[in-house]
Amino acid sequence: MDRRDVTFAQAEGAAPLPRRLELGEVSQQLRVRLAEIFHLHLSNTSQVASFYRVLGEPWNDILYSYHIDILHRFPSGFDSDLKEHLNSVERIFQQGNYTRIFDFVQFCLRHPNCPAEVTEAVEQALEDCGAAYTLIDDPLLSCQPLQRKKAKRFKERLQSCRKVASMGHGSIWLALQNVSTRMTLLAVFVSPFMQWNLLLAE
């Protein structure tokens, strides 16, 4: 590993090296990175009302929808006070388990008014922190296990190999050898034999 990609302590063996997180695992680094994204965007879009700051758009709309649709709280209980929402969002990332954290992130990213830069920042944070989840580029931008994204790429290559199969058995074996590195990457996350059977069966 390049020393430029790790801290001094990690390079010297005094601290553990970065690793890929397990499914269901959220590191302190990931919690802080995600919290910072929402903190900055809520703060930067806020507005002044009388003597305090309130949520601006689109976050007033997004968090009101979260208040109603996810928390199932009555409309009268919603307050646009910025400080209250900054604290409540931070509690999600500070104290919540992985399902609560990703439920919140997923809901915000699925909202039609969610800024594109928030989606990009979340995706970057997941990658930088070695999360086992990433964003699948579908209409809902849902959080999905990382191996599904890698499996999708591998299946695309495998389909190309099957096209080559019509040229003869020798050609298909050569084509499969060309994607052997993809199988190695997949094996980091799931059983290589299970993944192989799954991909061939589909």
What does this structure look like?
Mean pLDDT is 76; it is low at 168-202. It contains 10 helices and 4 strands; from the N terminus they run ααββααααββαααα. With 202 residues, it is mainly alpha-helical. 59% of the residues lie in helices and 6% in strands. The chain folds into 2 domains: 3-141, no CATH class; 147-201, no CATH class. The chain has a two-stranded antiparallel sheet. A two-stranded antiparallel ribbon has the order 3-4.
Strand and helix layout:
Blueprint: H1 8-11, H2 28-44, E1 47-49, E2 52-54, H3 59-69, H4 82-95, H5 98-110, H6 116-128, E3 133-135, E4 143-145, H7 146-165, H8 169-178, H9 180-187, H10 192-201
Antiparallel strand pairs: 1-2, 3-4
Distance between the first and last residues' Cα: 36 Å
How confident overall, as mean pLDDT? 76
List the secondary-structure elements in sequence, H or E.
HHEEHHHHEEHHHH
Query: Would you count the extended β strands for me?
Result: 4
List the domain count as a whole number.
2
Major sheet size, sense and barrel closure = 2 strands, antiparallel
Summarize the structure.
By secondary structure, the protein is mostly helical.
